[in-house]
Amino acid sequence: HRSDVVFGFAEVKHKQLLPATPSNEHGLGVRRSSVTDKSQSEDTAEDDDLTVDAIVAISEEALVLYVKALAILAKAIDLAGSWWGQRNHGEIIGESTSPRDTTKSSAPPIGNRMNNVVQWARNRFNECLEKSEFVGRKLVDAQKQLPLDNPGHPSNHPSASTSSTSVGTSAENINLTSGVTAEKLMYDRAVEMSRAAAVNELVGEDLAGCELNYNTATKLLEAVLESDDEPLSRRSNGTKKDRKPDDEVINGMETEDRQSVVKLIEGTKIRLAALKKKIAMQREHQASKRTSITNVVPSRTTTKASPVQTPLIATTPLK
Q: Which residues does the UniProt record annotate as the domain Serine/threonine-protein kinase Atg1-like tMIT (predicted)?
């Protein structure tokens, strides 16, 4: 879930770098006239063209988000591999029944569910990798078009060995001159979604969308706290010996920043729980309304049926 919301955020940036698809507003792609097409194409070009600086900024944001999603997916696959290893050795955590007994229940076996998760994670990992390479090439091409005196131009980049803001790809190291981080982007996006949901909830508009925004913001903030270089054993054991020191900087965030993120997650979850109760109460109220209406309908039909039968009886002697 955490990797999915980060991937969705990266997709928003990725689509901004793609050319706009032509629209067939006139039906079946039939062209009206060359003059109309020329004016429309010029307007579209003016609206869709991005400056070199904008391409560099959007590409850097998309790249760091894709890399963050790749890191979370890699940890998910690693965790699933550890689970399979424990399962093969008969050390399944959290299961009170044997694998044979799980096949008799109505729910699908947990092994099949884990297999589906691993397959999905691998497919998404490959998709992230492919799109991150595309965004990286887009970024390098845009950086070459910058003025020579611009800090983002490749001639002004520090060497890969001394640069601390570079992203490694299969082809080369890509330098990020703006200093953008995935954690900062995700945090700002989560705060924005939470505020928008709070405003809509206050006026009672689109409560379903508010629930989705609260959920997405929570997962984004949880992904912010995901350490890219944290070993799997620390997450599995959870002992004080394996935990990182409280004063250690993780993903560029100090302890105070991480604590503020944790408090924001807790507050968002509280608002989400209250919103779910409100939605449940509204559904119960609507269901009771429908029930009361259906109970009144039969009495109305009986009162309307009596006048209809009277003229039929009166017309019988005419035959």
A: 1-145
